[in-house]
Amino acid sequence: MLRMTMLAALLLTGTVQASDCTISNARYKHDQAAWWLSFKPVPKFVAPNQTAAFIIEMPNSGVTLEGAVHRPSGFGSPLWSISGPCKADGTEVCTFVEGEHTAIYANYDGAVDWLDDKRGAAAPDQVILPRLAASLWYSLYREDEFAPDMDAGDVFTLTGCD
Length: 162
Fold this sequence. Notes:
Layout: H1 2-19, E1 26-30, E2 36-40, E3 50-58, E4 63-70, E5 79-85, E6 93-96, E7 102-103, E8 105-108, E9 111-114, E10 126-128, H2 132-137, H3 142-145, E11 155-161
Antiparallel strand pairs: 1-2, 1-11, 2-3, 3-4, 4-5, 5-6, 5-7, 8-9, 8-10, 10-11
């Protein structure tokens, strides 16, 4: 009887911890590069259709890029953008992945879908930012952020939650 009670308590604890892992406290690591992604609160004075905010830390160059997720007209696919210093020691700000807007995707238990960008949404297993690596490859970060034999993609994998 005691074993059953302890097992039930353990299972309930695991369920609570899993449900506490949301995009607001999740931490992601890039699959090949030394980059880290984490979501943060949406700033107060932004476009009304901005639904999420995130940062990408690039430790090799000491830069943090600021990202945003928007829903055009309040519906449709979540579109992402990212900006930051044009070069590691610069003050000029560049927008990466310019041109056409790109959707942000996530892997939920092996199924890829648009990122659930609602406040308090469950953290996906992976976050996919199409065109991120190519945009950074053709930037001034190429030398510091890409190893010679690295085939960097656009996937960040969940490492844990705070």
